[in-house]
């Protein structure tokens, strides 16, 4: 049974950077594709990025392409989201999630972390 815990969120000025981490427990971590989603107050949960369980394939939402990078270290049971060039519209709670294959819809994920808040000021 894999459990996910996000960390690394916080307050940053526009144009700044943050790196989010998602630590997983469980020996089967390397067999899961991983994704990042975000949800702002009053809005639906939005896809951000996904990575295959071997780490060789990634896909990003158009809104974050060129600014965010997803990566994973299976030896450490951890997935990362490196965020640069942050904008106020990136403000949201960010969630990591696990799926059998890398997909871009929330319904494809069957395990979720508790979320970490990212706030980008003007």
Secondary-structure element series: EEEEEEEEEEE
What characteristic shape results from the CA principal axes?
globular
Strand content: over 45%
Average residue-wise pLDDT: 94
Distance between the termini: 41 Å
Structural class determined from secondary elements: mainly beta
Strand tally, please?
A: 11
Q: Mind summarizing the main beta sheet? A: 7 strands, mixed
Helix segment tally = 0
Helix content: under 10%
What is the alpha-carbon Rg in Å?
A: 13 Å
Q: Uncertain runs with pLDDT below 50, 5 residues or more?
A: none
List the helices and strands and how they pair.
Elements lengths: L2 E5 L2 E4 L4 E8 L7 E7 L6 E6 L6 E3 L7 E6 L4 E6 L8 E8 L11 E2 L3 E6 L1
Parallel strand pairs: 2-11
Antiparallel strand pairs: 1-3, 3-8, 4-5, 4-9, 5-6, 7-8, 9-10, 9-11
């Amino acid at each position: 049974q894999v459990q996910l815990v996000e960390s690394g969120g916080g307050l940053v000025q526009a144009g700044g950077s943050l790196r989010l981490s998602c630590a997983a427990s469980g020996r089967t971590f390397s067999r899961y594709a991983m994704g990042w989603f975000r949800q702002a107050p009053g809005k639906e949960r939005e896809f951000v990025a996904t990575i295959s369980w071997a780490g060789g394939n990634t896909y990003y939402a158009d809104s974050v392409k060129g600014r965010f990078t997803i990566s994973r270290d299976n030896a450490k049971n951890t997935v990362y989201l490196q965020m640069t060039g942050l904008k106020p519209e990136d403000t949201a709670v960010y969630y990591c999630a696990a799926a059998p294959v890398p997909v871009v819809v929330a319904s494809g994920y069957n395990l979720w972390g508790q979320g970490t808040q990212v706030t980008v000021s003007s």
